Amino acid sequence: MSPVPPIPTSLEDVRIKLLPANGYYIADFISLEEEEGLLNKIEAAPKPRWKQLAHRRLQTWPSDLTRDTLLQCLLPKWLVEPIATRLLACPASTADPQSHIFSTSPHAAPNHVLINQYQPGEGIMPHKDGAAYHPVVCTVSLGSSLVLDVYGTNEDGTRETEPRFRILQEPRSLLITTGELYTDYLHGIAEVHEDVNLGPDTVSNWDLLRSPELIVDGKLQRSTRTSLTYRDVKKVVKLGGKFAIFGKS
Ligand SMILES: O=C(O)CCC(=O)C(=O)O
């Protein structure tokens, strides 16, 4: 069994220094066994859980938002343990070891998870995540590496054509984007079979990667990549009294 990776002393130790405020990257956030367990749970979900989109497929937990609002419902245990628990155990700063990345979010914890699955050649158009969520996104990657492109905007409000930053996400890694990086920049995944031109000058988190040696001639072939994005939806409504919904494992 591979050991459960240690949590960094503080997110300050894993900040991606080349990015605007703020991005963090932990190369080894979950173990190989935890990755396999999560992939098994995701595959075991009932078929209607998957929404087939044009260039990826998607599961939404605990449910879709309606007018930016979540119907209160607990996340299933397999989405809480190990990822959410570990997110909350990771100190945001050494000065305040009790603080974590969701300390100042409305529910002080993530309450929503999107699971995106991409085959090689698939991706997601550059976009912003919008105002429904507190501006923190925690993404755990499973199965394959790929590059997340980060775009700025021109003065007229249109998107810049070339990515301003590129973040390489390895399997079992955690990427956190927050602050200005969340509100002012767009992110997307190119629809390619292979990420190219990868190196210390083009990849913002190069110094934090687990296995840069796997990149040969600046290239990395993609295989099936599954991501789990944890967020805190700001508006939550209760379906009160005896109709309350409880989470299932
Ligand atoms: O799969 C990813 O890493 C990105 C997903 C994404 O952009 C989103 O859910 O808004």
Automatic annotation (TrEMBL):
Lineage: Eukaryota, Fungi, Dikarya, Ascomycota, Pezizomycotina
GO molecular function: dioxygenase activity; metal ion binding
Domain of life per record: Eukaryota
Pfam family, one: 2OG-FeII_Oxy_2
InterPro entries membership: AlkB-like, AlkB-like_sf, ALKBH6, Oxoglu/Fe-dep_dioxygenase_dom
Family: Belongs to the alkB family.
Record keywords: Dioxygenase, Iron, Metal-binding, Nucleus, Oxidoreductase
Subcellular localization(s) per the UniProt record: Nucleus
Source species of the chain: Venustampulla echinocandica
Protein name, entry field: Calpain
Database matches in PROSITE patterns: FE2OG_OXY
Gene3D superfamilies (UniProt xref): Alpha-ketoglutarate-dependent dioxygenase AlkB-like
